[in-house]
Amino acid sequence: MHTAVEENVQARLILSTHRSARLRVTLSYRPEDPLAVRMAFPAEFSLDEPADRPGQDTSQDTGTDGDSDGGQDIVWVFARQLLSAGLELPAGVGDVHIRPAAGRRTMVELRAPEGTALLQFDSADVRRFLWRSRLVVPEGEEHLHLDADRALAELLG
User: Fold this and answer.
1) Does an H or E element contain 121, and which?
2) CA-to-CA distance for 57 and 36, rounded, in angstroms?
3) pLDDT in tens, 97-129
4) Where are the alpha helices (DSSP H) in the chain?
């Protein structure tokens, strides 16, 4: 059985034209969910109040730690293909948009009812994570790792 891929990277949360905050982001990939990647960042960067944070992916352990005050990391789940495509050209519809930026950077825009977060990554970090995920499940072979019975059971509760 293949194991999950996890990569801790540094990102910058863009606050304004001249202000940003550095934060730790954990990118993860699970072969049992072969079409998706997960991006987790500390709860302290959420726009929600701590009591209002039930919307994150808590169905499975992401392997990330909560923040120092015991809050759970914020986890966004989206298509691995979207992350890959966004390295070369602007990509995304809906809540997640990814695009290349000057200086070998990649921008990830996360949209929620509470607001929009713009994160900047070193493209080399994202490429390394994607390369490692493709060693576990090669691009184009995701269908070989899908468990339709498990997915249906999760949908039906």
Assistant:
1) strand 115-122
2) 12
3) 999 999 999 999 999 988 899 999 999 999 999
4) 80-86, 123-136, 148-156
* 62 burial type by CB count under 10 A (0-12 exposed, 13-18 middle, 19+ buried): buried
First to last CA, the chain: 25
Question: What pLDDT sits at residue 146?
Answer: 63
Q: Phi and psi at residue 145, in whole multiples of 5°?
A: -110, 0
Number of neighbours of residue 115 by Cβ within 10 angstroms: 10
Locus of tokens 């891929």 = 5
Q: How is residue 115 written in tokens?
A: 């607001």
Decide if pLDDT at 155 tops 50.
yes
Q: Is the predicted pLDDT of residue 66 greater than 60, yes or no? A: no
How far, in Å, CA of 97 to CA of 82, rounded? 8
- Higher-confidence position of 78 and 59: 78
